[in-house]
Structures are given as C-alpha cells and as structure tokens.
Amino acid sequence: MLVQPYNLMAHGFLLFLLFSYIISTNIHACKQTERSSLLSFASTLSSPSLNWTSLDCCHWKGITCDQDGWVTRLLLPSEGFKGGISPSSLRNLTHLTHLNLSHNSLYDSLETQFFLFFNRLEILDLSYNRLFGELPLSPPSSSIRTIDLSSNHFFGAIPSSFFQQASNLTSFNVSNNTFTGHVPSSICLHYSPSLRLLDFSSNVFSGNLTPGLGKCSQLQVFRAGHNNLSGLFPEDIYNATKLEEIALPLNSLHGAISDKIANLTNLAILDLSFNHFGGKLPLNLGKLSKLKFVTFDFNNLEGALPPSLMNCTNLVELHFRKQQLGRRYHHA
Ligand SMILES: *[C@@H]1O[C@H](CO)[C@@H](O)[C@H](O)[C@H]1NC(C)=O
Ligand SMILES: *[C@@H]1O[C@H](CO)[C@@H](O)[C@H](O)[C@H]1NC(C)=O
Ligand SMILES: *[C@@H]1O[C@H](CO)[C@@H](O)[C@H](O)[C@H]1NC(C)=O
Ligand SMILES: *[C@@H]1O[C@H](CO)[C@@H](O)[C@H](O)[C@H]1NC(C)=O
Ligand SMILES: *[C@@H]1O[C@H](CO)[C@@H](O)[C@H](O)[C@H]1NC(C)=O
Ligand SMILES: *[C@@H]1O[C@H](CO)[C@@H](O)[C@H](O)[C@H]1NC(C)=O
Ligand SMILES: *[C@@H]1O[C@H](CO)[C@@H](O)[C@H](O)[C@H]1NC(C)=O
Ligand SMILES: *[C@@H]1O[C@H](CO)[C@@H](O)[C@H](O)[C@H]1NC(C)=O
Ligand SMILES: *[C@@H]1O[C@H](CO)[C@@H](O)[C@H](O)[C@H]1NC(C)=O
Ligand SMILES: *[C@@H]1O[C@H](CO)[C@@H](O)[C@H](O)[C@H]1NC(C)=O
After folding, report:
1. Is 262 or 19 the better-scoring residue by pLDDT?
2. CA of 174 to the centre of ligand 5 (A)
3. Where are the transmembrane segments (predicted)?
C-alpha cells in the first residue's frame, strides 16, 4: 500500500519524460505533407546518393526546416540528379527561401507560375543544368536576392516587368543561355538599390544597351559580352561609379569612349575587345588607378594609347591589338 504513491510518482515522471520527448522532437520535425512533397520530388530524379528514408525529413541531407517544420532550404548542388522538375512536386514547398540545385542534369522548363509558388524565395541557383524554355511569366517576389540561371538552355526575351517587384535583388546571372531581345537595362529603373552583379554574357541579346544602368548605383560587375549588341556605349553607365568590371567583348558596339569614364574610379577590369569602337581613347584614362586588366583588341580605335596609363601601377594586362583604322600597336 505504501508503494502506490511512489509508483504513481514514477509513472508521472515517465509520462513527463515521454511528453517532453514528443514535444522536443516535434519542434523541428517535418510536416508530413512536406515530407511527401520531398519524396515525390526525389522520385522524379535518379540519384544514387540520396538517403531520404527516416521519418523526420528536417534531418535529411540538404534539407533545413524552420521551427514549425516547414522546409525552408533545399540545397543539393552537384548530386548527379537527372530528370525533370516539372510538373513540379516542389511547388508544395511554399516556405522555401533557398533553392540550390546547381550542377545537376535537370531538364524541363520552369512553370509559368514558378515564382508564385515560391514567394518567399531569396536565393535561387539552378545554374549548370539542362533547363530550357522561357522565363516564368510571374515575376519573382520582393524577397528575391539572387537569381542564377546561368549555363542552361533557356531562351526567349527577358521582359522588364520581370524585375518589377525585385527591390532586394543583388545578383542576376543568366549567362551562357540563348536569351534574345534587349538586355533589360531597365532592370535599374524599377528598384535597384541593391544590384551588384549583372551577367548577360554568352547569349543572343541584340539591339542597343538602353539607358538605365546608371541608376544602378551599387553595380559592381556588368557583363554582356558575346552577344549581338549594337549601338553606342551607354552614356549613363558612367554614373554607376561603383563599377569594378565592365565586360562587353564580342559585340558590335561602336562610338567613342567618353572621358567621363574617368568617373568610374573603382574600375579594375575593362574588356571592350572585338567591337567597333572608334575615335581616340580618352587622355584621362590613366586616372583609373585601380585598372588591372584592360583590352581594346580588335576595334577601330585611332591614335596611341594615352600616356596617363603609365600611372596605372596596378595594371597587369593591357591589350590594344589590331585596330583596323589606326596604326597597329601590340602590348601584352
Ligand atoms: C500538393 O498539394 C496538393 C493540394 O494540397 C495535393 O493535392 C498534392 O497531392 C500535393 N502534391 C505533392 C507532391 O505532395
Ligand atoms: C540511411 O540513413 C539511415 C538513417 O538515417 C541510416 O541508418 C543508414 O545507414 C543510411 N544508409 C546509407 C546507405 O547511408
Ligand atoms: C550553390 O551551391 C554551390 C555549391 O556548393 C555554391 O558554389 C554556390 O555558391 C551556391 N549558390 C548560391 C547562390 O549560393
Ligand atoms: C530587403 O532586405 C532588407 C535587408 O536585408 C530586409 O530588411 C527587408 O525585409 C527585405 N525586403 C523584402 C521585401 O524582403
Ligand atoms: C555567372 O555564371 C557563370 C557560370 O555559368 C560564371 O562563370 C560567371 O562568373 C557568373 N558571373 C558572375 C558575375 O559571377
Ligand atoms: C555553358 O553551359 C554548358 C551547359 O549548358 C556547360 O557545359 C558549359 O561548361 C558552360 N560554359 C561556361 C563557360 O560556363
Ligand atoms: C543581330 O542583330 C542584328 C541587328 O540588330 C539583327 O538584324 C540580327 O537578326 C541579329 N542576329 C541574331 C542572330 O539575333
Ligand atoms: C548622372 O548623374 C548626374 C548627377 O546625379 C545626373 O545629373 C545626370 O543626369 C546623370 N546622367 C545620366 C546620363 O543619367
Ligand atoms: C563625372 O564627373 C564630373 C566631374 O568630375 C561630373 O561633372 C559629372 O557629372 C560626372 N558624371 C558623369 C556621368 O559624367
Ligand atoms: C601621373 O600622376 C602624376 C601625379 O598624380 C601626375 O602629376 C602626372 O601628370 C600623371 N601622368 C600622366 C601621364 O598623366
């Protein structure tokens, strides 16, 4: 008889232990709907390396959940995935903030409503896959910070409306695809306080670079080489004074380089090779003391290199070969 209260207490203690176990494991335990979404995503891919078997998907490789058990990160680059990602089993993972599936062999196109499903997405890296088709019609939400769709087979134009909500976008890389139409320089006209990297290189963009880039006050890297661009070097780019790299090789741009280029005091890389630039190089070019790599190869420039370049002590490479109109110089 004396034993019973003790027994009760012991039972109570065990129950307490059981409850706290359930509670503590439930805090980060994944929702079963999220688990089945992940499994259905995995089932469309072939990958030997995924071991997604345990009950709590929040502890699976590549998965991060928030406190309520929603999957927020899916980071599985270089997993050897082959397969389609559409019609998307991922679309039910509505709390995703980070999606990195770069360096796999995913094929398919992105659903037109892709960014509507993932309206909390901050980081999207689908680079180095075999994705094709046009960009989704629905634009990314204001939470987006990084978009890397480079080295795929995407095509079509990039509508300027694509950026209409992207006020926190810092990096946009679509290089090495087959996009056509204009380079959407208007990207800077919407909201652009945070844009730092823009890479449009190795596509089939054509027409001139429309004004707008100068409004990207934080822009550090602008690449649009290896396209079909024509027209003049955009004047307002001289206003983007944070620029460290301008790379526009292998296009059909023409006109003279203005002495306003001296405003770009952070410039280290300037690649204007294989274009139709003409006139004389601005005498004040040497004011750009951070210049490291400069090439004007294969243009129509006249005259000699400005002597002020002698002042650029950081200069490692300077190329000025094969100017079709002017005299020939060879520096390397
Ligand atoms: C996604 O959610 C819908 C509606 O809740 C459901 O019908 C569908 O089966 C889910 N898909 C996956 C792959 O879980
Ligand atoms: C898969 O994961 C389970 C539990 O997480 C583990 O017991 C098992 O050894 C793993 N298998 C492989 C092949 O890694
Ligand atoms: C995606 O993952 C790869 C490999 O870890 C990494 O190099 C890359 O920076 C990641 N992408 C982003 C946008 O963080
Ligand atoms: C934009 O970024 C800032 C700073 O990182 C953050 O406070 C803000 O919530 C972000 N805005 C949106 C709409 O995500
Ligand atoms: C854009 O992506 C390509 C790979 O597809 C990479 O080589 C390049 O450096 C990236 N651009 C920037 C500005 O980081
Ligand atoms: C361009 O993309 C293809 C895949 O689409 C890739 O194999 C190749 O390495 C990429 N080139 C560069 C320079 O990144
Ligand atoms: C290149 O641009 C020119 C002039 O803008 C245009 O006529 C031509 O069709 C473009 N070529 C390709 C392959 O887009
Ligand atoms: C460059 O900036 C100056 C001063 O902010 C402004 O007056 C001028 O209109 C800008 N030029 C272009 C081409 O946007
Ligand atoms: C460049 O700098 C000069 C003075 O250094 C200034 O008058 C001009 O507005 C600046 N901006 C442009 C786009 O030339
Ligand atoms: C090089 O810089 C010095 C000091 O700033 C200046 O006096 C000189 O004129 C510059 N040389 C050239 C060729 O611009």
Report:
1. 262
2. 8
3. none
